[in-house]
Write a structure and sequence with these properties.
The complex is a heterodimer.
Chain A: E1 28-30, E2 36-40, E3 50-51, E4 58-59, E5 64-67, E6 76-77, E7 82-91, E8 97-105, H1 125-134, H2 147-150, E9 161-166, H3 175-182, H4 184-198, E10 202-208, H5 212-222, E11 230-235, H6 244-252, E12 267-271, H7 272-284, E13 290-297, E14 303-308, H8 313-319, E15 329-332, E16 339-341, E17 354-358, H9 375-379, H10 386-394, H11 398-403, H12 414-418, H13 425-453
Parallel strand pairs in A: 1-14, 9-10, 9-12, 10-11, 13-17
Antiparallel strand pairs in A: 2-8, 3-5, 4-7, 5-6, 7-8, 13-14, 15-16, 15-17
Helix pairs in contact in A: 1-4, 3-5, 4-5, 4-7, 10-13
Chain B: H1 19-41, H2 43-66, H3 77-87, H4 95-110, H5 123-134, H6 136-139, H7 153-163, H8 174-179, H9 188-193, H10 205-217, H11 224-251, H12 255-262, H13 273-293, H14 300-317
The chains are: A alpha/beta, B mainly alpha.
Chain lengths: 454, 330
């Protein structure tokens, strides 16, 4: 049966880090709030939030400090109580620059007045969606798409199934694993609440079967009151099982059309971390001000931490006993899709699932000529031909690359991982995608300008 | 605060597979057939293997030095070419011919077209074809009787084990006999052990199967190519002459060496799974046509070379559709 639950392609990056990824046993520990937090106003896809505070303002924990800057946007909240010392531009993971609110912690953790929903079961879908929006919840698996937008389908789209992503297919990361183990009850409760907000009767939690304890914990909670309609599905261990389209296919046998979204096949996908945040927002009234982060790799005591949003990565590293010699890279996220950090001052955001310290193995080796072995084709979960796309992009033939489907690439990194010639295949596809989308924007702008002239 | 961490585009993790490891494993998989060749054909086989491998390495090195390219000899692909070329020579071939073949394979077929991964025909096979056409008398397996077998005790033992006597070792190759319409004087055991005439690395079926299956299990060669290739030949001969005939055909000539080690050459075979099946079936059909209806007793190298040339076209027509992309109607 497991054989049937497979998406095409895939690879096994876990094998490469055997032993090093086993901090799944480390329970989530509260990381003490740092002396100051730096909270970016852009931690999501869409318009950046607009600052509601200025230098010198006193803020309470959970107070809204940034207002959503549009429909596809999310508000931002203070993760400590204290005083705003600056609103300034900073650099976040991936190198982008954004405005951020810097708060000096008074170490009181004085919360704003919390208003938990008394009877969410009697609330309308729209009311629940509004609660989720106000709590600043975004996709916490890494993409950061505002959750309330995802839960508000456009017009004629019918949603039948809520798919919960508990696959956690990136090596090293165990944040979701621990969350499923320790907060199984809250996650099931959260799923139930999202089902109400979506008005769907069916939810499927997909978990890779290398986490049998998490599967068991979730199943134990499902049998209780209100578990109806929720299935926990054990999935094969295969990267990228947690890819949105791959997960939808594995759990529902439905193929999300190329260029489309899960909603096109009646599905909405949420990460378990997001579900937990929704549960906290509705039941406790708490906005999203902290998240679980795995600190792994070349640190002395790797582990999982409940971290306040805006905590600098250096505080996490310190809590783990410091970096080991030979650390060359810091990664925000997993080793396959994470962004590298040039500095340890970068803050943890809503989408930081992990921070990894990696050594020489993470430095790109020298590239060799393609030998046409086909490993990239075999591993590509989107059924592309990465070797060919690589060549087209390098030759500047972006039109042909687009025809060959480069825009379908989700940059999972499986091809670059598998390539024996160590070619930068994913990187080429990423470059190709960026150039194509840039050209489209330019053409649209040009067309608009000409129209204005007429 | 530390802000001197290296930055790069993801992914930040790589598999252990390298071109060098792959080529080394191919060499390893080719070893049994080479050892069998030396046992069956004696020191001349060892000499030819050594000459081909050395010449291939030296020509690649010199070429890359002279043209000021990056030296890639340490990827072991030249060793693979040398081994394959040697296995495709009769043990009686003169050394100068082995040298010419190796230089042709590396310079003309591989380097002039861009080096590893860029050649459009298999270097060893093309060189063999050139030698075969230029010096057919020296290249033909008409005088393939294992030279050393008469006085080599090991071969003697193997020979006795295989065919009940060394007298079977002399005479025409199995394919000559088969194409003359008879399976007389042939035994399955002799074909499996390689105690019959032929090129020095192609006769011992057991050694080739061990190496080939190893490559497929390790995922280095795509099993689809040998499966489709050998399967097609079997089916064709099964309908032509029955199961026994088909089995003899499979174990004779260069089919196993070609199907496992030369048709699976990455650079000259399609990149997609479906393409590789088509490629294998095409090789099988061409081999059958050449063996059964043409003048050549052996069609393996030409079948593969034809399909090498067809590979870009196969790749073009077997481009997979991206996941979730619907076939356009109308």
């Amino acid at each position: 049966m497991f054989g049937l639950r497979m998406f095409p392609g895939g690879t096994h990056p876990h094998e490469r880090v055997n032993g090093k990824s086993v901090n799944g046993g480390n329970a989530i520990v509260d990381l003490p709030a740092p002396a100051r937090v730096v909270i970016p106003l852009q931690q999501h896809i869409g318009a950046p939030a607009k600052a509601l505070v200025k230098k010198g303002d006193a803020v309470l924990m959970g107070q809204k400090i940034g207002e959503a800057g549009g429909f596809v946007s999310a508000p931002v909240h203070a993760s400590v109580s204290g005083k705003v010392v600056a609103v300034e531009e900073i650099e976040v993971a991936g190198g982008a620059r954004t405005q951020a609110v810097v708060i000096e912690n008074d170490h009181q953790d004085a919360w704003v007045e919390l208003t938990p929903a008394a009877h969410p079961e009697t609330m309308s879908a729209a009311e629940l969606q509004q609660l989720i929006r106000e709590a600043g919840i975004v996709g916490m698996g890494g993409a950061g798409f505002p959750t309330s937008v995802k839960l508000t389908p456009a017009g004629d789209k019918v949603i039948r199934t809520l798919v919960i992503n508990g696959a956690e297919c990136e090596p090293y990361l165990t944040a979701d694993h621990r969350l499923m183990l320790e907060k199984a009850g809250q996650i099931i409760d959260g799923i139930r609440l999202i089902m109400l907000a979506l008005d769907v009767k069916r939810a499927i939690i997909g978990v890779e079967k290398n986490k049998p304890d998490a599967i068991e914990a979730l199943r134990a909670c499902c049998t209780g009151v209100g578990g109806d309609g929720i299935t926990v599905m054990a999935l094969p261990v295969m990267y990228p099982q947690g890819g949105e389209k791959q997960l939808v296919y594995a759990t529902t046998r439905r193929k999300v059309p190329a260029g489309g979204l899960p909603i096109d096949v009646g599905c909405v996908v949420c990460n378990v971390g997001t579900v937990y945040a929704v549960q906290q927002a509705i039941r406790e009234g708490k906005p999203l001000v902290q998240r679980v982060v795995t600190m792994g790799g070349l640190v002395n005591n790797p582990g999982n931490f409940m971290v306040r949003i805006g905590t600098p990565v250096s505080a996490l590293i310190e809590a783990c006993g410091g970096l080991q010699n030979g650390t060359k890279m810091l990664i925000s996220g997993g080793p396959m899709m994470g962004a590298s950090l040039h500095s340890d001052e970068v803050p943890v955001t809503k989408t930081t699932s992990g921070v990894l310290a990696l050594g020489d193995e993470a430095i790109d080796p020298e590239e060799n000529p393609c030998i046409n072995c086909g490993r990239c084709v075999k591993t590509c979960p989107m059924q592309l031909v990465p070797a060919r796309l690589d060549l087209l992009v390098r030759n500047g033939d972006f039109d042909q690359a687009e025809k060959c489907g480069v825009l379908n690439c989700m940059e999972c990194g499986a091809c670059t991982f598998a390539c024996p010639a160590k070619r930068l295949l994913t990187q080429s596809c990423r470059h190709g995608k960026r150039v194509i989308s840039m050209r489209r924007k330019q053409e649209a702008a040009k067309a608009a300008a000409e129209k204005a002239k007429d | 605060m530390r802000n001197n961490f290296a930055v790069a585009s993801s992914p930040h993790l790589r598999s252990k597979a390298t071109t060098q490891r792959i080529m080394l494993e191919v060499c390893l998989a080719l070893a049994p057939a080479g050892i069998a060749g030396v046992i069956l054909f004696g020191w001349r086989a060892a000499l030819l293997i050594a000459v081909c491998v050395t010449t291939c390495i030296v020509s690649e090195l010199l070429w890359q030095l002279v043209t000021r390219q990056k030296v890639t000899v340490n990827d072991f692909s030249a060793v693979v070419t040398g081994l394959l070329l040697a296995y495709n020579l009769p043990a009686s071939a003169p050394v100068w011919m082995a040298v010419i073949g190796s230089v042709l394979a590396i310079i003309l077929v591989k380097q002039l077209f861009g080096g590893i991964g860029s050649n459009f025909m298999n270097p060893a096979l093309t060189a063999r074809a050139v030698l075969f056409i230029s010096w057919s008398a020296l290249m033909s397996a008409a005088d393939p009787a294992p030279i050393s077998a008469i006085y080599d005790p090991i071969a003697n033992f193997v020979g006795k084990l295989g065919a009940g006597g060394i007298d079977v070792l002399s005479g025409a190759t199995p394919l000559n006999a088969l194409n003359a319409g008879s399976t007389e004087g042939l035994s399955l055991m002799s074909l499996l052990m390689g105690t019959h005439g032929g090129m020095l690395g192609e006769t011992c079926a057991i050694a080739l199967i061990i190496g080939g299956v190893y490559l497929c299990i390790r995922g280095i060669a795509d099993w689809r190519i040998p499966a489709a290739f050998i399967g097609t030949v079997f089916v064709c001969y099964f309908f032509m002459g029955g199961a026994e005939m088909a089995l003899y055909q499979l174990l004779s000539g260069g089919l196993l060496l070609g199907a496992f080690f030369m048709a699976t050459d990455y650079a000259t075979s399609p990149i997609t799974g479906l393409g590789r099946v088509i490629f294998g079936v095409g090789c099988g059909l061409l081999l059958f046509v050449i063996r059964a209806f043409a003048n050549y007793p052996e069609g393996c190298s030409f079948a593969i070379l034809f399909m090498n040339v067809a590979t870009p076209m196969i790749d073009r027509f077997t481009m997979p559709r991206p996941f979730g992309e619907v076939k356009k109607h109308g």
